Amino acid sequence: MKLCAIQIPFAQNPADAEKSVEIAIAELNKCDASCDLILTPEYTNAPGKFPKGELLPFAKAHTAKLIAAAQDAARRCNAIVAVNHLAEFAPGEFRNVTRVFDRSGNMAGEFCKQHLPVAEKKSGVADNYTWSFREPAIVEVDGIRLGFLICYDTYFSEYIVHLAYRKPDVVLVSSYQRAERHDVLRFLNQNLAFTCNAYVLRASVSMGENAEVGGNAMMVDPEGHILAEFGSKVGTLSCDVDDIHYKYMRSNSFGGDMIPNDQFVSQGRTPWSYRPAGSMTIPGEKEYPYPRICAHRGFSKAAPENTMAAFGAAVALGAPEIELDVRFSKDGVPMAIHDDFLERVSNGTGVIQDHTLEELKKLDFGVHFNEKFAGTTISTFEEVLAKFARQVIINLHIKSVGETYPEEYFKKIIALLEKYDMMEHVYFMATPEIYDVAMKYAPQIPRCMSADAGMWEIVDNAIKCNCQKVQFFTPYYNQEMIDRAKAHGMICNLFFSDTPEDIPRLFDMGIDTILTNDYHLVAKAAEKYIASKGK
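RESULT FIELD:
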């Protein structure tokens, strides 16, 4: 089977981009019946630099001719042709996509880039489809399982392992990687082939005849051997492969039976010890869109507040945020509890700070809510993180302990957030004396001003502490306060509403996140509002 990778010049201006598209079409036209699988580089319909606002119109104007050439090549050569280009999926919505055409020129399937760098998003290329679970695409043509990566995708080992799980025969890599050295490109694609136990066919763009970065279209076999590479040339790189279904077999430890290389690795994987990843995770605090509904102390109308049952119910129902209160036990363990005193939420008495973790764990934190929850124990902050890390954003309400906040307390909170990889999925809700410490030890974590420091002075306090958010307390807020917070670039939270009918009015006032005890009903109202606005 003959594999072919087209490499074209990267253009520094729209005029040269016209020439590069024509070169790609010319290379497709040169392909003959000896070709079996042909791949074009990333952005084949817009391969270059463009002034602001010109990239997408250029791509749209050059798509039809490129696709026609690809379909013609497929039919003429009796080949499978994969073309990467910017495609308009809906009016004004362009995605970076690799589309596969079978030997009859019919589209057999497609893959939209999963990981978009910041610059690509800023250029107007859509990434909304990447925000929920999508298994890595496999397009099967004539019994050949084709997998895909596009440029930036090649750096994400967790995604590559998932792709390996889908058993591709060939991984098609359409790429730019303009700043990457040739030796690094070799390493990345050798590792890709070795991990997926598949051939790799990579097409790219040349950065100039003598460039030592970018370019380097290549073919790699499942053992990690580079079969052919193109350096910074322009044209089509070809290579014959005897068996496209070949899998590298190795001994299962020294002297063991022979097994496929990907199986050798997967059988020993311990994902529970890895960074939280996969479909259970959500985008971080700075990425997740607004408006939001935050489950106050978890789904606290359905289960005892600040317990694993309440948090679990909220997460299971899809809450993007939960609010969680933290106080410390006598022996310095951060606990999930709102009140300073134990009587309202447990069968204990006294102040939480006067009890050790061991003593607190003996108390019942469910029976007061409902006898069906009898035996529910208090949760440590670490237990919550261990169960729900990166599955939800935590509005972390750090409860005040006086005029100053102990640095050792704050350091413990940060250590746990770092341990469970939650630094990007949390923001603090607190008062100024706590922010004196927060800005010293964790200035990168967003700060939300609590109304506890002054109901009507909340915006002033937020400005003084350089907060990114404010959390108004019902009924101590008005439109003027919201507008002033917005003028200073702040996100506006509101505690609280359990009334679905209130939601449209609050969002229209400029509230971004509404805290609620009745997550299910209020979230349904929010979904209806968001759908009505087309967000």
